[in-house]
Amino acid sequence: MEELKQSEQKKSCANCGAELKYKPGSQQLSCGYCGYEEFIEQAKSSFEELELEHYLKAVGDNAYTETIGLLHCKNCGANQHIEENYKSLHCVYCSEPLITEDIEKEGWILPSAVVPFQIDTKKARSIFKNWVNGIWFAPNKLKKAALDPEGIRGLYMPHWTFDANMTADYIGKRGEYYYVTKTYKTKNGTSTRQERRTRWYPASGTVNGFVDDILINASEKKQREVPSKVAFWNLKELKPYNSSFLAGFVTEKYTISLKEGHHQSFAKAKQIAHNWIRSDIGGDTQQISSTDIKLKDETFKHILLPIYISAYNYNGKEYRFYVNGQTGKISGTRPYSFWKIFFLILFIVLVIALFILFAQ
User: Fold this and answer.
1) pTM beyond 0.70, yes or no
2) How far apart are CA 213 and CA 117, in angstroms?
3) Residue (of 324, 305, 241, 326) closest to 40 by Cα position
4) Kind and range of the H or E element at 279?
5) Which H or E element spans position 31?
6) pLDDT of 149-191, one tens digit each?
7) DSSP labels, 77-120
């Protein structure tokens, strides 16, 4: 039998032999059958920032440091890795069945860090249920989905982070406001008003500083983007990667390559540089004519971030709901029940008709 790589090893309970799963909000694995708990061995050193140039030039997109088993969803394209002995499960994103007989081996750049789940599935389901109960005209099917113990699933989403020392030379203009009094005619005579003008002065210079943890979602499917309300994690809580944190959860493999992630990070670095430049120019408003941005000492990390997802279909349309596995923030799109709205309108019309009838 082929030897299993570290990320695919199953963690068995030393007491009863059942499978151990990560206990959110702790540094432990726990057994759901006998209650046995086992501490996760901590790395002796912190996670490592990898030197970017080596990966991009020497080994590029093929820089695989480990092989993992992946289940590929034929419906939405998500690549999902599980640390459990499932015979079958459903895709986290679209709820289509996934069969372990379809598992494939692929290489990946080993994650260097992970933000472990801080809330468990029971708590996430409770947050989802309370959210559903608080919205109007929700279909009964959605309310049932909120009660389904298998209706919400924990997922580690892949991200790239990039660091660099950045220098930007710029040429632009500094604008300073001043006001002039203008006289205009009205039907009652004349009146005055203040109008704003801008005096422009040439500006140029250099700004520099350290850009830390530019975060890039490494899942390329637009329909799988997590809403910005939810997509905020405290990266100060990153822990050195240990596959034990993945036990009991699904892990998605990145589909945006390191090279493409680096390209996207430069666009964000440019935005940061422009903010620095505007601050350096000063004044009331600024214009930037040209910039020369240079990055050096670039490093990156492949990290995993926790999210709970519930996905279901209603009238042929797919809906998803997200709960941040670290903060508990929830967001998602919701359907409306046509019949609930219809009967409410009908009820209102009947009440108005009865009121008019008895008022005569």
Assistant:
1) yes
2) 20
3) 241
4) helix 258-281
5) strand 28-31
6) 456 888 899 999 999 999 999 999 999 999 999 888 888 888 8
7) --EEEESS--SEEE-TTT--EEEGGG-EEEEEPPPSEE----S-
